[in-house]
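Worked example (supplementary).
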Amino acid sequence: MSTLVLPETAREVRELIRSDQWRGVTSGVAPGYVQANLAILPRDLAFDFLLFCQRNPKPCPLLEVIEPGLTEPQLTAPGADIRTDIPAYRIYELGQLVEEVDSLIPYWRDDLVSFLLGCSFSFESAMVEAGIPMRHQDKGCNVSMYITNIPTTPAGVFSGPMVVSMRPIKREQIVRAVQVTSRFPATHGAPIHIGDPEAIGIADLDLPDFGDRVEVLPGEEPIFWACGVTPQAVALSCKPSLMFGHGPGKMFITDHRDVDYAVI
Amino acid sequence: MSTLVLPETAREVRELIRSDQWRGVTSGVAPGYVQANLAILPRDLAFDFLLFCQRNPKPCPLLEVIEPGLTEPQLTAPGADIRTDIPAYRIYELGQLVEEVDSLIPYWRDDLVSFLLGCSFSFESAMVEAGIPMRHQDKGCNVSMYITNIPTTPAGVFSGPMVVSMRPIKREQIVRAVQVTSRFPATHGAPIHIGDPEAIGIADLDLPDFGDRVEVLPGEEPIFWACGVTPQAVALSCKPSLMFGHGPGKMFITDHRDVDYAVI
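After joint prediction of all chains, the assembly is encoded as:
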């Protein structure tokens, strides 16, 4: 399977995943298509979680919510099946990871509500196109992520600190980075914070809470964006009886294009 | 009370309303503060309605959702009371208007969820500041509103056509009107349609479904924006056992400023 040349459209990639012909990470796959984080929760938590996302749109930019028991993302990927079209799923019980699986079909229940949330791949592509390099991409590693002292706005049972991702940006490109990412509010949007990590409760940039260490060079500032790990971390912290998520780096690829989400 | 000079801050105006010293329409009151449409529904409809708003952000731009039974808009107007701080409320049973009242306190229940939705006053101010006149304001009448053939995206029990408001704009100012309103997605944002009313199912501009007739002069085009009447019309069409709304033209005045909602 290592010689498999991946197709260019989201639909074709999803078909390969569904038919078990490909199970890789989705970064760089089907370029130009919006990818999504997944969180699936029982119906009794769905109103609170939807409200949490509504109150915290920067870390939790909702692309689509699939109604209880339904499995087709009719708005962002008609014909897809949320239970089979992601390369890997994680199953959490009472907030603990219990299993990673290829398909959610054996675990599906009629009371489950699926949330698809924008991920940062879209705005990273826009920054690269604008000539702003992404060091973690160039190094082939994951972005650095940190738990901050910035509280999210609670909703029902859900509350907790915001998780941010950090990208080192040359000082002369910071304004452009703000402009470029401001165009994409559905995929985290403008930065949450520029510079001084301690101001948002990050004691040591070299010790990310998630992802990999990414160096900040002289002439650069660390720039922080709200991160899609936030809703997952917040959801797990309230120890739901059951929650499904995507495997790390393995996102749901929608039929929507990055450009569809540019506000201007 | 006709000589009452209204105070300039939202908080002070709300206090006058709460203490029954003023009960007028809120257009032009507390300039610069964001005003909101109100819809209050029982909890069993709240998830579907929240999802309907999430799926239809242009007609249903959520500013705040107050959790079941709670009455303080903590995010947009801390200290306010959603039951008393609007000049008039309408009570609907099974989709029919049954009463207009000054206070919801006698009618309050612990299962009620309050939705505050952005209204067009914010972007109208921005257009006037940009030199784009609003004819309905100049004539002292209400904006023209029409039921279109544009379907909203259904959610649960809620579905129905989009309602739009129409403003005549000089051809040379249409681009500027698009730009100015695009900055305010939380208050309906960019137009839904420019020109030809028949293309969106409006047979006769002179016969609005709601509001007043507003003339389109030679050299102007009718420009259409998604309207906050949409969620109210959609909610009532499914005949909820109980729904509360605001009296016509009598909005909830938040502490947030118009400029806080400009995306760039």
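Two points are worth noting when inspecting this output. Chain B is about 20% helix and 25% strand. The mean pLDDT of chain B is 94.
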